Amino acid sequence: MSELEIYQKQGFGNSSGIGQRPALLIIDFVNGFANPEQFGGGNIQEAIENTQGLLAEARALGLPIAFTRVVYADDGSDAGVFTLKAPSLTQLTENSFGSQIVEQLKPQDGEYIVRKTQPSAFFGTNLTAWFVSKGVDTVLVTGCTTSGCVRASVIDSMSYNFRTVVATDCVGDRALGPHEANLFDMEQKYADLMTSSEIIAVLYERVPTETAAGPR
Amino acid sequence: MSELEIYQKQGFGNSSGIGQRPALLIIDFVNGFANPEQFGGGNIQEAIENTQGLLAEARALGLPIAFTRVVYADDGSDAGVFTLKAPSLTQLTENSFGSQIVEQLKPQDGEYIVRKTQPSAFFGTNLTAWFVSKGVDTVLVTGCTTSGCVRASVIDSMSYNFRTVVATDCVGDRALGPHEANLFDMEQKYADLMTSSEIIAVLYERVPTETAAGPR
Amino acid sequence: MSELEIYQKQGFGNSSGIGQRPALLIIDFVNGFANPEQFGGGNIQEAIENTQGLLAEARALGLPIAFTRVVYADDGSDAGVFTLKAPSLTQLTENSFGSQIVEQLKPQDGEYIVRKTQPSAFFGTNLTAWFVSKGVDTVLVTGCTTSGCVRASVIDSMSYNFRTVVATDCVGDRALGPHEANLFDMEQKYADLMTSSEIIAVLYERVPTETAAGPR
Amino acid sequence: MSELEIYQKQGFGNSSGIGQRPALLIIDFVNGFANPEQFGGGNIQEAIENTQGLLAEARALGLPIAFTRVVYADDGSDAGVFTLKAPSLTQLTENSFGSQIVEQLKPQDGEYIVRKTQPSAFFGTNLTAWFVSKGVDTVLVTGCTTSGCVRASVIDSMSYNFRTVVATDCVGDRALGPHEANLFDMEQKYADLMTSSEIIAVLYERVPTETAAGPR
């Protein structure tokens, strides 16, 4: 029996769908993760480029949009177990180049910026509360890395009962084996996998036109 | 460059070690996950057997010990996105056979039983608070599945700044590809990997003898 | 300047209102808190009686309804700092009479029962996730005690960005000074105060009639 | 029966004590809360002055020290229900004068600064994780306001099973009625009340001398 067959037999891998009030979550697309010499590489650059289109459509439709950045204190006071495992993360401080969101995806006023020190966008942040304030029922996930902060955020998003969709062409990783392995795990247990084109098609069916900020 | 080399070059994969006050966390070793016809299979049975020795030593040393069970409400009132992805999870109710901890690892009085509905042992539970009450600084993780509730719990354990160790011979999964892939991810970013024998050797060096409940 | 004037001058005490998707939260109306010889007294009995009408209307309108119970483990394994301050709380175990929801407010299938050991209904529970799954934007709070678990739950409800309303005639406390003092604090900073009659009037304006389970 | 007698009869008001690893938490002593024309007044200024001595001793003893600031986004993107109740809170942005910690209590390198938007120092922050990383078992609380962010933080501190002590002369409020009422509630259920002198005396008995940074 293949791995997929084992999961199917035990009842995993069903779809949780897209609800009525989706939000877009863009995880750690910052300069340091766009740079193969720092934390980047693999298919991350391609994922950033693909996210530009999804972001533009989300803005046109007036969806709530949240970004995350990894930000550690300048004095190292908030270093912890994560920075024991990966000490170079502490380079990502408030004003460091590596911690700024990439120019292609620059946030606009009213979009929410989450500063975090842990993998999940929800851990030790007010992201859940922000989604509640916007009436969100579905989280569309892009960002990097698939096997790191995307995976951790997807588990929490699902655990808070947001329907969760991973935009497969808009998530990237420094190494492709973990990228693929984590897409498999997430699809079986936590989230639906869709391309950004598939997501956009559903959004234009689903989101009430009066919410949209204007014509496409 | 191999995947491992990419991670090494970017500064991942360091050790976070074992502190002075370890606790043992045993995740979802319940009948339903011991049964290949329900949620089990793979190397889960072997992991249960290997956990018996580690549990006995942890008891001898007087370590805080916590178990998790997946428990959904009898009336389905707490079904959510996780049970959309995997509807058969709702079979695990308070008194169902599948939700009882396996006989080989039966909890004793004073050991903490976490009821959970989501992957992480920490999500929507008081496990963090219980570890704080016991002065815990390190979590030794066993259980199943490696790619599911173990991975999710390890991320949260590390995020709460508990030094986290996965007992490699005491975690199991229904399919071995995800098991291996998740061990790789966890070692690179969140936890140390050690066999139960290696862990026990460190415990007997580290834990003050006066804490131990008696001679080995 | 009176205390109220100080708060007004500094810009507190505004209304946060009722949104489109209210839920009813009934906190700790269990036998032990209905009994003046255990944890009850004051105006708690009256608050239980007043809650009956609000519960009936919430059911007629099909609102999501959640109840909390305080439940400690039979073996005392989850005792903590709260039970150092108030040791008699550990009497409230799963099958103890004191921990059962009062007969007048008996939950129905599909209504959510939160077991908790700490003051807030949200702390270490999945209540936030359950409200997300129901699309809730407003929490209507009843229960006891006003100065204890109601106050703690109201802070968290507001912090998660649920518009929060305390039903003044449906919350009670063993002593009236703390009851009044906590209503003042909550109104200034966290929640609106309304009688159950005022709440019901708004619900019938606000909740789409097609949601209602049937005629009044 | 007096209110105090009711609480005593029901078993509240016991001491939870001070453990072996206390930390100092200084809540919202920022310019905006030191200014009676913004959010200050009452006995807040006096509490700031009294905190100077406790902070100096905590530093001499090498205790972990954390400060909180209220910080909202410049573009108002994170406004929520709290800012519906109290709109002027949104004046407290990263670089506003009102949001800076008062000069008398200026943090030093290695001390942890928590940015928060909600009442509790623990809500949507990494404070619990930071205390775990420092092995903290007890939280000594100072700050303002007693009836607001101090009360909310004390509930969470206790809920996470940190023994919690309110330094009575180091907490302040814009109005004295709520200050006194909240001290009563906290002592009965969540925390011990001690003066800063009493706390310092215990610290010098309790904290191992080798931890202290030097002679007094």
Structural description of this entry:
Four copies of one chain form a homotetramer. The first copy, chain A, is of the alpha/beta class. Helix content of chain A is 37%, strand content 17%. In chain A, strands 3-2-1-4-5-6 form a six-stranded parallel beta sheet, sandwiched between helices. In chain A, helix 4 (81-85) links the parallel strand 2 (65-70) and strand 3. In chain A, helix 3 (44-60) packs parallel to helix 8 and helix 6 (146-159) runs parallel beside helix 7 (176-189). The radius of gyration of chain A is 17 Å and the shape is globular. The relative contact order of chain A is 0.21. At the A-B interface, helix 1, helix 4, helix 6 and helix 7 of A face helix 1, helix 4, helix 6 and helix 7 of B.
Distance between the termini of chain A: 47 Å
Average pLDDT taken over every residue of chain A: 95
Helix content of chain A: 25-40%
What is the 3D shape of chain A? globular
Work out the strand percent of chain A. Answer: 15-25%
Counted by DSSP, the helix tally of chain A is 8
H/E series of chain A? HEHHEHEHEHEHEH
Helical/strand content category of chain A: alpha/beta
Strand tally of chain A is 6
Q: Any low-confidence stretches of chain A, pLDDT <50, length ≥5?
A: 210-216
Adjacency order of strands in the biggest sheet of chain A: 3-2-1-4-5-6
User: What is the oligomer described by this structure?
Assistant: homotetramer
Largest sheet data of chain A: 6 strands, parallel
**Mind telling me the C-alpha Rg of chain A?**
17 Å
**Largest interface (C-beta under 8 Å):** A-B, 52 and 52 residues
